[in-house]
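Feature request, filed as a ticket because there's no other form

It would be nice if the structure record came with a short human-readable summary line next to the tokens. Right now we just get the raw output. Example of a typical job, pasted below so the devs can see what we mean:
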Amino acid sequence: MGNTEKLMQQIMDLKFTSKSLQRQARKCEKEEKTEKLKVKKAIEKGNIDGARIYAENSIRKRNEQMNYLRLASRLDAVVSRLDTQAKMQTISKSMGNIVKSLESSLSTGNLQKMSETMDQFERQFVNMEVQAEFMESSMSGSTSLSTPETEVNSLMQQVADDYGLEVSVGLPQPAAHAVAVKNSEKVDEDDLSRRLAELKARG
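Raw output as currently delivered:
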């Protein structure tokens, strides 16, 4: 197998990797929806702390989904350019080596490492004076695990509004307990009234 044939095979593998990234994005989308439902159930039970955790998970999954989609898009752009260059047989040996490096990085599943390798890959194109447009230059910071509190509160409020639920995301957990206690007191009062009514009926 000649160098061009090897490169074409590697390009096919990279196309397959792009599809895998898109599959991962769809998986993250499903997980995001699952976490949103957990937010709803937690709010219904008055478990605001739990709802906050599920909201953070949901937002994290949405960010992961966007990262996978961005990476797949960048990879598609690179592969498309590679494909053209390979067919024109103008690809250099160094480009063949960096294709191997990219393949290795993508197989690890580490989003940040993938992004760094993609940056290196894109710089190689610039060095070869091959003009190409890429969706993103970097995913810097977008793989952070921290989730802004305002974003969490916003998602919780959105879920509550969607299902017609009442939620005070700004209140600490004890306030939620206080509401629960008031509700239980009301139940006790209702129960007492019913028993009194029954006694009167017997009398």
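Something like this underneath would help us a lot:
Residues 129-141, 171-182 have pLDDT under 50 and may be disordered.
The helical segments are 3-44, 48-87, 93-108, 111-127, 149-162, 173-202.
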